């Protein structure tokens, strides 16, 4: 789609990395109590445009309309934990993360950059383990290893 051709090893690595992500996430793959349409809001907030501004504004509009529709309103809970959390979310998790992502896309092939994104569930799971003492099952540990192998195969340097 982006004009970049993947080698057979990169396709294999991508498939393995996806399988690893599914293994790490298998216990979390539930819909929960939210209505089914609410899950579509997340997809609707990701426009095809690469502009971070459009992405963020679309997400804010869709989630804002959803909050109004279900009756939660738009008032922010100005608590001690909310403000630092929002600072982290806006400046670190959004602006810094997107800056690193777009810089990486300029410096490296898209296949290598996307392979690194497969490590996100792995990092999230390890942070949850360290900060909240979340349990680490054998399936999750297996998923960590599988994801690492897939990322290695996808991102490794091809011989000419």
Automatic annotation (TrEMBL):
Broad class of where this protein is predominantly found: membrane
Membrane topology: Multi-pass membrane protein
One CC-aspect GO term: membrane
Start and end residues of each EamA domain: 36-154
Residue ranges crossing the lipid bilayer per the database entry: 12-40, 52-70, 82-101, 138-155
Keywords tagged on the record: Membrane, Transmembrane, Transmembrane helix
Origin superkingdom: Bacteria
Family: Belongs to the EamA transporter family.
Protein name: EamA-like transporter family protein
